[in-house]
């Protein structure tokens, strides 16, 4: 209806159908359809293409744009266009109400069909033979027991496997510990052998050095002996050369070869004799030299020990000498440190005395200033007391004049109520407020307005 009436119905499905809303907007609703056009303001026309029916709406429901709106109504395609609606709203509402009635009838028929189907299903279920449910509780208990047994068997097998693994690991660890101990023993024995070999190597190096020194000494002795032998052999050769006897016998000639052979034999025997003598002398000399070398070695070892002892003694004596020097130098250093300390503390004492004298002078000055300020304070206090007396007298006079003025103007002015100030005025008595009327002091608001006090 034009002007603001609402038309519509409510179906069993919970949807609402509406007609035109008065003024500048329309609300459309359909049951069973998939379209809702909310508040189509200023719509011009609507066209239901499936039914071929054209309806008109009021001129107030006119769309501002000519954009078409598509929707589906109960499976039928609808298109709202700007050239469909006319100014007859009653016919449009009648059409929509007819559609709503048809949809409601369809819904009712579907509900009835659903109820019939439910009755048929219920009757069929009642006609069917009820099935007897087998009780599987015993089977379930058996299954649970079997499952528990399986779990127990699996746990036992796992436990046995773990025990076997633990035993194997223990055996392997024992084997490894034995191997470790064996290898550790081998390592210790090897270290002991290495240490003994190091000691043996040190001994060998010492023996080598000793033998090298002996070899050098023996070579020197051999050179000396050869030189002595040459020196002793040369005069002997000269003596032998001078003592050659040459005998000539002009007798019948003799065999020169035999003579030469005899001479050769004589010289060979002489050479052998001399060689034996030289060898014996050489051996005796070598034995004597070896004895001397051994004795010299012993003496050298003793000398080395004495040198070491003397070195230790020298070190101890040097330490004693240093301690004696330190003891000798200690008094001198103590005297020097004492003099330095005395001079330092004398300087500090002089500085402190100067500071004390300065502080005493400042203290005397402060005392004089304090006395001067005290005298000035007393003078100012006397002046303040005089001023307080004058102010109190002046206030008393003002209060008297104000009270007289209040008594004279009581008929023309209302009773005065004091206004409290945020800060009290100097000289104002406690509990009083300054009044808006000049030269008037009133009582606090809690007291009666007719009561007046004098200071």
UniProtKB/TrEMBL annotation:
Coiled coil spans: 93-127, 201-228, 286-320, 349-376
Gene3D superfamilies in alphabetical order: 1.20.5.170, Single helix bin, Vasodilator-stimulated phosphoprotein
InterPro entries (alphabetical): IF_conserved (IPR018039), IF_rod_dom (IPR039008), Keratin_I (IPR002957)
Residues of the IF rod domain: 89-405
BP-aspect Gene Ontology terms: epithelial cell differentiation; intermediate filament organization
Protein name: IF rod domain-containing protein
Family (UniProt): Belongs to the intermediate filament family.
GO cellular component: intermediate filament
Organism: Crocodylus porosus
UniProt GO MF annotations: structural molecule activity
Region feature Disordered, mapped onto this chain: 1-20
Superkingdom per UniProt: Eukaryota
Alphabetically ordered keywords of this record: Coiled coil, Intermediate filament
């Amino acid at each position: 209806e034009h002007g603001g009436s609402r038309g519509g119905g409510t179906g069993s499905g919970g949807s609402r159908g509406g007609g035109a809303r008065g003024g500048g907007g329309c609300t459309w609703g359909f049951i069973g359809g998939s379209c809702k056009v909310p508040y189509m303001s200023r719509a011009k026309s609507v066209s239901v293409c499936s039914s071929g029916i054209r309806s008109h709406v009021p001129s107030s429901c006119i769309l501002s744009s000519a954009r078409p709106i598509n929707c589906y109504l109960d499976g039928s395609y609808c298109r709202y266009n700007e050239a469909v609606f006319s100014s007859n709203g009653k016919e449009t509402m009648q059409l929509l109400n007819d559609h709503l009635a048809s949809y409601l009838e369809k819904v009712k028929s579907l509900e009835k069909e659903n109820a019939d189907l439910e009755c048929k299903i219920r009757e069929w279920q009642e006609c069917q033979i009820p099935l007897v449910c087998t009780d599987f509780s015993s089977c379930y208990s058996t299954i649970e027991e079997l499952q528990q047994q399986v779990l127990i068997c699996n746990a036992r097998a796992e436990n046995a496997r773990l025990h076997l693994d633990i035993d194997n690991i223990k055996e392997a660890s024992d084997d490894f510990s034995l191997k470790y101990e064996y290898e550790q023993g081998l390592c210790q024995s090897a270290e002991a052998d290495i240490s003994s070999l190091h000691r043996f190597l040190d001994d060998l190096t010492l023996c080598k050095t000793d033998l090298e020194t002996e070899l050098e000494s023996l070579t020197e002795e051999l050179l000396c002996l050869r030189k002595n032998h040459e020196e002793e052999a040369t005069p002997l050769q000269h003596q032998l050369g001078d003592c050659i006897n040459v005998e000539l016998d002009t007798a019948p000639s003799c065999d020169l070869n035999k003579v030469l052979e005899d001479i050769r034999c004589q010289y060979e025997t002489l050479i052998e004799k001399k060689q034996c003598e030289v060898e014996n002398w050489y051996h005796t000399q070598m034995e004597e030299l070896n004895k001397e070398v051994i004795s010299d070695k012993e003496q050298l070892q003793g000398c080395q020990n004495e040198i070491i002892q003397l070195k230790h003694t020298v070190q101890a004596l040097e330490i004693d000498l240093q301690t004696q020097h330190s003891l000798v130098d200690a008094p001198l250093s103590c005297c020097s440190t004492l003099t330095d300390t005395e001079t330092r503390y004398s300087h500090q004492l002089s500085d402190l005395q100067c500071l004390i004298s300065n502080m005493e002078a400042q203290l005397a000055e402060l005392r004089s200033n304090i006395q001067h300020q005290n005298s000035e304070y007393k003078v100012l206090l006397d002046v303040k007391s005089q001023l307080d007396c004058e102010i109190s007298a002046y206030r008393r006079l003002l209060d008297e004049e104000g009270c007289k003025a209040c008594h004279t103007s009581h008929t023309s002015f209302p009773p005065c109520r004091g206004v409290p100030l945020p800060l009290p005025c100097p000289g104002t008595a406690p509990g009083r407020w300054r009044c808006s009327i000049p030269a008037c002091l009133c009582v606090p608001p809690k007291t009666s307005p007719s009561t007046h006090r004098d200071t």
